[in-house]
């Protein structure tokens, strides 16, 4: 599946079209999954831990990222 | 051969840049309104909406009390707030008196064990931690996403793909959820609804992602028979209609306490939106530059089978 498309040249290299790589979905899938899991975990701990639900007892995580939680748009109160 | 890992690395770097940029904007533009909201929080009118989460800000209040030596400070603040912008506290002498009068330790939660993060850390290192971590994670995802998207979106160049991706992510992950559940500063929002609001907020983000994926699939389908412009317009319109209808029908919350200054609310929301925008401007621009370099380098190395690749 590693076929390539021939693309328009970028402005700085008008002479020859830039060959764009097309990464196969099969090889990308595990990395995509990893990245989604990472976003989920970070999103949860920055955005929701010790709010509506909590994994750790106490309030330390909530308080440490408190201002980031508000300003990044998560519900806090 | 370019691997997806090459894109991931560049995405993490972009996330670092975006996270730092978001921290800068959050600190400079967002923090003043957060501080104003917290200083208003000890006052009478905001008291009824206090939540279980209130210990955070009570602790903050406590800090300021301790910091300025006299316990009069908190009371003064409350009094000022009450006198200057709020209707007189009516029938219920209420929670706030206890809040202000008993400043010590968040004793309500037995499991807190006194780990209180002072405001001075929440607004600096804590803020940096949150923006940086989310920046890194989203940047990594954007990098992998760009690796998949490059060469698959019609005639878009690497740089254009990176910018469209970042702009799309900003709209899908922040702007649309923002429309449904606009973020609130401390002192706004009822503790009783935090559970449902959190669930609905993340649900809104999830729906927005689903709509975007659907729009992408439909757009690519249209592209089989029509040009890229038409396919793009169809995809964007589909996403816009689905998400705006959803924004209109999901439950909303009207929890701004009476007397809470509209200007503070506006400045907070503005600061929040700019923080998210800064995050994606940083990610998008950095990815555009680094990924273009990656692909151009790869391209140059394979430019002509007969030529040796000479490192620049
Ligand atoms: Zn809060």
From TrEMBL, chain A:
Keywords for the protein's UniProt record, in alphabetical order: Membrane, Transmembrane, Transmembrane helix
Keyword Membrane part of the UniProt annotation: yes
TM ranges: 28-46
Highest taxon listed in the record's lineage: Bacteria
Protein name: Putative cobalt transporter subunit CbtB
From TrEMBL, chain B:
Pfam families cross-referenced by the UniProt entry: CbtA (PF09490)
Name by which UniProt lists this protein: Putative cobalt transporter subunit CbtA
Keyword Cell inner membrane: no
TM helices/strands, residue ranges: 7-29, 125-150, 162-180, 200-219, 231-253, 273-291
Organism: Terracoccus luteus
Cross-referenced InterPro entries: CbtA_put
Keywords: Membrane, Transmembrane, Transmembrane helix
UniProt entry tagged with the keyword Transmembrane: yes
């Amino acid at each position: 599946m590693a076929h390539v498309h021939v693309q328009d040249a970028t402005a700085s290299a008008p002479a020859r079209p830039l060959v764009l790589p097309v990464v196969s979905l099969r090889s990308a899938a595990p990395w995509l999954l990893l990245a989604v899991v990472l976003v989920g975990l970070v999103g949860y701990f920055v955005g929701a831990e010790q709010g509506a639900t909590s994994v750790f007892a106490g309030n330390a995580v909530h308080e440490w990222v408190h201002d980031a939680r508000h300003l990044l748009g998560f519900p806090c109160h | 051969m370019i691997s997806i890992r090459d894109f991931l690395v560049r995405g993490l770097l972009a996330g670092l840049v975006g996270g730092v940029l978001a921290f800068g904007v959050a600190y400079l533009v967002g923090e003043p309104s957060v501080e104003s909201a917290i200083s208003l929080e000890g006052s009478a009118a905001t008291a009824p909406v206090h939540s279980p989460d209130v210990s955070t800000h009570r602790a903050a209040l406590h800090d300021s009390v301790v910091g300025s030596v006299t316990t009069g400070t908190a009371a003064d603040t409350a009094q000022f707030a009450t006198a200057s912008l709020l209707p007189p506290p009516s029938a219920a002498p209420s929670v706030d008196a206890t809040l202000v009068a008993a400043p010590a330790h968040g004793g309500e939660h037995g499991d807190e064990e006194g780990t209180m993060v002072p405001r001075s850390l929440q607004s600096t290192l804590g803020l940096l931690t949150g923006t940086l971590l989310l920046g890194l994670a989203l940047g990594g995802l954007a990098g992998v996403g760009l690796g998949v998207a490059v060469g698959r979106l019609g005639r878009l160049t690497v740089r254009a793909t990176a910018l469209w991706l970042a702009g799309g992510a900003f709209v899908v992950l922040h702007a649309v959820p923002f429309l449904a559940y606009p973020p609130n500063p401390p002192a706004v929002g009822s503790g009783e609804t935090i559970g449902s609001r959190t669930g609905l907020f993340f649900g809104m983000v999830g729906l927005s992602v689903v709509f975007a994926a659907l729009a992408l699939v439909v757009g690519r389908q249209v592209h089989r028979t029509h040009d890229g412009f038409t396919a793009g317009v169809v995809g964007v319109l589909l996403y816009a209609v689905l998400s705006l209808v959803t924004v209109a029908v999901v439950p909303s919350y009207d929890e701004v306490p009476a007397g809470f200054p509209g200007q503070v609310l506006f400045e907070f929301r503005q600061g929040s939106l700019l923080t998210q925008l800064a995050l994606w401007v940083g990610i998008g621009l950095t990815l555009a530059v680094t990924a273009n370099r990656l692909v151009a380098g790869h391209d140059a190395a394979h430019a002509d089978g007969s030529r040796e690749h000479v490192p620049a």
